[in-house]
Amino acid sequence: MAEMPMIEIKAVSRFYGIYKALDSVTLDIAAGEFFSLLGPSGCGKTTLLRSIAGFDTPTSGDIRIDGQSAIGVPPNRRPTNMVFQNYAIFPHLNVAENVAYGLKRLKLDAQDERRRVGDALDQVRLSTLGKRGAHELSGGQRQRVALARALVMRPKVLLLDEPLSALDKKLREEMQVELRSLQKAVGITFVLVTHDQYEALAMSDRIAVMFGGRIAQVATPKEIYQRPLTRAVADFLGGMNFMKARITGETATDLSVETQRFGAVTLTKPPGFTCGTSEATIGIRPERLRVLWDDDTAPHAIEGHVVDRHYFGEITHLIVNVPGLDAPLSVSETNNFGADDIPVGAPIRLAYDPDALVALAD
Amino acid sequence: MAAVAILQDGPSKSAHRTGRRWRDSDEATGLALISPTLLYALALLFLPVLIVIAYSFWTQDYLTIDHTFTLENYRIALTEPIYRDLLARSLVIALVVSLVTVVFSYPVAWFISFHGGVHKNLWLFLITVPCWTSYLLRVMSWKVILGYQGVLNTGLMSTGIIETPITSLLYNSNAVVITLVHSWAAFAILPIFVSLEKIDRSLIEAAHDLGDNKVMSFLRVTLPLSLPGVISAFLIVMIPTVGDYVTPKLVGGKDGVMIATAIQAQFGKAANWPLGAALSVTTMVVVSAMAGLVVLALKLFVRWIR
After folding, report:
1. Same domain, yes or no, for A273 and A296?
2. How many whole angstroms separate alpha carbon B280 and alpha carbon B260?
3. Domain locations in chain B?
4. Whether residues A222 and A344 fall in one domain
5. Looking at chain B, which residue has its C-alpha nearest residue A102?
6. Within a domain: residue A362?
């Protein structure tokens, strides 16, 4: 990030009495980036978003938007607009009036205003519904109105507070694609708050995972999924098989470990890893374990037998007991080759790539 | 529903199939539930009103009533200057009272709803405290406050703001307005409070987010959305005030007489029930029309500011 970031969050803390909602959060968000704040409820992600919007004031620290400090600036004078979780559509106004709400203050001439409202409604594919009352809209349409109402203001930053959580699964997936392409088209910085890891992975340029008011990791979706730094991040972003390993050697960047069944491997040491004991936690994603059929061979394989099986349509989760491991392994296998037909109790061989193993800080 | 089920197990077993089905319907249950109230309202509200309307078309003939249809009472009610003036004054007082009451009550309701915090119920409770004393006592206490040697005058004189007592406080329409505004405040605060409570706070945040300052978001979001409460407060205060009898009698003096006093006189001393009835019906019709106009005006006002 050579250019100046669009949003700079510097050591922002927020206390509610003795409760720390935000604990010294520092974060840069680049201009034109689709950035997600991901975490379980109560992790402080919404407080952070509302601090950027101006609805919440940090107890300490600084927030700069486009180079200007936003501390003390009310929401109506910030270059940000928000899509609220419940969309906050004005019930006494129709769709076009809702979208035009913020424009009225700019005192545009009627033709200009109508054109901008029309363009915004086109962007969210609602151009035919301008006259429709707020009460006659479906959930998806309400969300589009909220989007258009914010985008028509041409903000530097669009803030989205769990915008898809009220929609059903199919509509949610459609809107993920649409939001992503809309962001590409308008080029505005989007900051999205979500507790849905798949949503964050599917849409974002970068993700910040938060726990307990702190940022645990900031990275691209691929990196955060494949190279989580801590056990909590790994656990929050999908399934992970955790196991203990004995540390045999340590450098500034690497960690050599002796595992129970995966042999001796050298892994990248996560920053902040404290080697208090001689043990480390390592993990492997369920889909990085592959079932070996019949006479297939692989350079790295382990053996066990199936103890349980969960069918999910396109994939099957196999729970495999490997002698010598503390906990059974969870394996995610596509059903192309009949993984859903493997009976419980059957012996099984699993291939893996040692690169898929990650060392995790606690 | 349980009551309906019990009824069915009884002698109605022999009833016609369709009849039985109707008894089981939501419509029947609903009617059964409202019928006591409905009968009560019919007997004590609808019927008397019908009788009053009937009387207004008859004539008093000394001790008997002449039942031939006539519009003479309405001619008197609408053209006699005394009744016209009394009705006009009643309407003006009622309008002023409801306007002042709503204007004073709105900030109170707004404060409780938006800044009442955890003590909202305590605030509401405190607002109802004056209603615990009798209405008469409250009106009488205003006599003590507003009188020539009353609390207000002596207080203002002792602080040196005025030198001689203000005489325009009691026994005129000002006194009626002041007393009625105080009496009705709680009834205006409550509906406004309820409609403010129903406003989703994120709508106000959205208005700020879209560039409104606090005044603009109030005018463009809070006020329009609380309009139902404002309208009910206005009507709750205005309609009974037009026909108020006790307050003008006690604090109104000669200049504060309202239409209800004249109606009471026709049914009492003057013993002209048909004219009293015609005055009542005229007042009812005019008040209804004015209520409609007020609702329309408020709606237009809100449409204009947004």
Report:
1. no
2. 8
3. 2-56, 81-305
4. no
5. B210
6. no
- pLDDT tens by residue, chain A, 362 residues: 457 899 999 999 999 988 999 999 999 999 999 999 999 999 999 999 999 999 999 999 999 999 999 999 999 999 999 999 999 999 999 999 999 999 998 888 999 999 999 999 999 989 888 899 988 999 889 999 999 999 999 999 999 999 998 888 888 898 999 999 999 999 999 999 999 999 999 999 999 999 999 999 999 999 999 999 999 999 999 889 999 888 888 888 888 898 888 888 888 888 777 666 788 889 999 999 999 988 888 889 999 999 999 999 999 999 999 988 888 999 999 988 888 889 999 999 999 998 899 999 87
CATH assignment of B81-305, among 3.30.470.10, 1.10.3720.10, 3.40.50.300, 3.30.300.30: 1.10.3720.10
Beta carbons of B209 and A90 less than 8 Å apart: no
Tell whether A247 and A343 lie within a shared domain. Answer: no
A31: domain CATH number? 3.40.50.300
Angle at B290 between CA B284 and CA B291, to 5 degrees: 85
The angle at the Cα of A280, spanning A278 to A283, to the nearest 5 degrees, equals 160
Q: Are residues A218 and A237 located together in one domain of the fold?
A: no
Nearest CA in chain A to B212: A76
Do residue A273 and residue A195 come from a single domain? no
Task: Please tell me the distance in Å from B187's CA to the nearest CA on chain A.
Answer: 25
Task: Specify if A360 maps to a domain.
Answer: no
B226–chain A nearest CA distance, Å: 11
CB contact under 8 A, A88 and B213: no
Residue A27 is assigned to a structural domain of this protein: yes
Whether residues B209 and A53 touch (CB distance < 8 A) is answered with yes
Give the position of tokens 């196991």. A243
Alpha helices, H only, A11-126: 45-53, 95-100, 110-123
* B228 to chain A: closest CA residue: A92
How open is the CA angle A153-A155-A157, to the nearest 5 degrees?
A: 150
What CATH number does the domain containing A307 carry? 2.40.50.100
Instruction: Kindly identify which residue of chain B lies nearest to residue A56, measuring between CA atoms.
Output: B205
Q: Which H or E element spans position A200?
A: helix A197-203
Number of domains making up chain A: 3
Q: For residues B82 and B283, is the Cβ–Cβ distance under 8 A?
A: no
- In the structure encoding, which two tokens stand for residue A299, read together? 């350079």
Asked if the C-beta of B207 comes within 8 angstroms of chain A's C-beta atoms, the answer is yes
Contact assignment for B205 to A88 by CB distance below 8 Å = yes
Pair (A110, A123) in one structural domain = yes
Same domain, A26 and A76: yes
Interface of A with B (CB under 8 A): 53-55, 74-76, 80-82, 84-86, 88, 90-93, 101-102, 105-106, 149-150, 153
Cα separation, B143 vs B131, in Å, equals: 17
| Nearest chain B alpha carbon to A91 | B225
Q: Which residue range(s) make up the domain with A264?
A: 232-282
| In-domain check, residue A2 | no
Q: How far is CA A248 from the centre of its chain?
A: 34
Quick one: which H or E segment has residue A157? strand A157-161
* Cα of B209 to nearest chain A Cα, Å: 5
The DSSP secondary structure of B105-150, one letter per residue, reads HHHHHHHHHHH-GGGHHHHHHHHHGGGGS-HHHHHHHHHHHHSTTS
The verdict on a CB contact (< 8 Å) between B225 and A149 is no
Q: State ipTM.
A: 0.86
Q: Looking at beta carbons, which residues of chain A come within 8 Å of B224?
A: 92
Determine the residue among A51, A76, A78 to mutate to test chain B binding: the one whose Cβ has the most chain B Cβ atoms within 10 Å.
A76
Do A185 and A141 share a domain, yes or no? yes
